[in-house]
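Feature request disguised as a bug: please show the residue count (272) next to Transcriptional regulator, AraC family in the output. Example input:
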Amino acid sequence: MTKSSLLTNLLDNFKPDPDDRPVVALRVAVDQNDSEQPIHQHRKGQLVLALYGGVTCDVPGVRWMVPPQHAVWIPGEVPHSNRATANAHIYFLFIEPGAANLPDHCCTLAINPLVRELIQHLAQAPDYPREGPTARLAAVLLEQLPMAPIQQLHFPVPQHPKIRLITDALEQNSADRTTAAQWASRLAMSERSLARLVQRETGLPLGRWRQQLRLLVALRQLAEGATVQQVAGNLGYDSVTAFITMFKKALGTPPARYFAGLRQNDTGAPAS
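Example output, currently without the count:
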């Protein structure tokens, strides 16, 4: 099975939209390689939970990163694609429109142990009766989800051709340190015009926008098991301290402590 077909084949055999229950769940374990699911959409909203490893979700104009113990919420009818890291253990939760008071836009949610256990339980009973203990737990889950804190783990990916050139270069080489002046020269525009363009298209200053991409790359690599030292080098930081400072400024805690905190919410090794 190819990298691109694993998630696709699993979901081709799992049809959530015809199911009129308020919420259904699916567990997916990705072995050995990254796995991708091309752009698609559902009538139901979708919550993508990363229990181990990480997931990147793309929606029009934005890329969302889902580190361990987090989930991305994708409202119904929103086109999106998913990419899971090697050896990721993820859960797809499909929610009937209006069944939970969730945002009408995509966002990353921090998932607490109670919500995580409810999702895992639901995935073990995909055909649960509409009345009974599991249906009551599903109702509790739908009440708890809207309380999950929203995390700012996204990266604007506008389609403007000049910004796409910068995005593609940074994605191919996250250690790229081309300055704003150098980019402006390459794109045949002034540095001030470039700054205004990026601000208008992304809602962020150029430096902040580039840093947000590096943060998402860092989260993905750390979720895959890379060390802090390796990630700092991959991103082109002059020192590990400089990388840790960036990470702490963005997420409020150093990377080692951030992932240690996620592991504290862990209940043990993933089931096979």
